Amino acid sequence: xxxxxxxxxxxxxxxxxxxxxxxxxxxxxxxxxxxxxxxxxxxxxxxxxxxxxxxxxxxxxxxxxxxxxxxxxxxxxxxxxxxxxxxxxxxxxxxxxxxxxxxxxxxxxxxxxxxxxxxxxxxxxxxxxxxxxxxxxxxxxxxxxxxxxxxxxxxxxxxxxxxxxxxxxxxxxxxxxxxxxxxxxxxxxxxxxxxxxxxxxxxxxxxxxxxxxxxxxxxxxxxxxxxxxxxxxxxxxxxxxxxxxxx
Length: 247
Known about the structure:
Elements: H1 9-22, H2 33-40, H3 44-57, E1 60-63, E2 67-70, H4 75-99, H5 102-121, H6 127-140, H7 145-161, E3 162-164, E4 171-173, E5 179-181, H8 184-204, H9 207-222, E6 225-227
C-alpha cells in the first residue's frame, strides 16, 4: 500500500456498504473480489473479510457458482424493515428520555438548530446527513448499545431498500381549500419541528411523550417511501486509499 499504510477491512466494508446503499451495486449484482480490490485500491484480503461482514448484515449473499452478490430482499422482507423501525424508534426515544446525558442533549439541540435553519432556507440536500446524525445520536442516548446498533442497522437497510418518494406523501389541505400534496420543503420544516419537539420531551425526561412523538414522526416518514427497483450501476464515489468525507 502507498507509504506502507494498511487499509483495514472495516474501511473497505464501509465503502462497499455505502455503495450498495447508494445503488452503485444493484440488487443481485455480482461482487467479485478482484474487481472490488481494484476499485477501492486494496488487496483481496480486506475485501474478503468485508464481504463476510456484509453477508452477516444481510447486504450480501453467496450463491453457488456465482460467488458473492448483492442481496435481493423480498417485498415482505422490505415491509418488515419498516415495521421494525416503527417499533424500535419509539422505544429508543423513550429510553433516551430516561437515560440521556447532557452531552447527548447538546448535540441533539445543535443538530435541531442546524436542521431547522437549513430547512427554512430550502437547503434540502444538506438535510439527510443531519437527519442521520440526529437519529444516531438519539439512538446512542438510549443508553443501550444493542438497541442503538439495531436502530442504525435498520435505518441503513431502509435507505438501501427504499427511496424517498414525494409523490406518495399523503394528501392534505392547502391554503384556499381543496387538497394537495405536501411540498418537500414544507415537509422538511415540519420534520425538523418534530425533531425539536422530540428533543424537548427527551430533555424533560418525559418518556411517554417522547414515545408518542417518535411514533407519529416515524409513521409520517414511512409514508414517503417506495420500494427501490434495480437500476443501472452508478460510478462508485469511494477510493479507500484516499481521504473520505464520510466518518
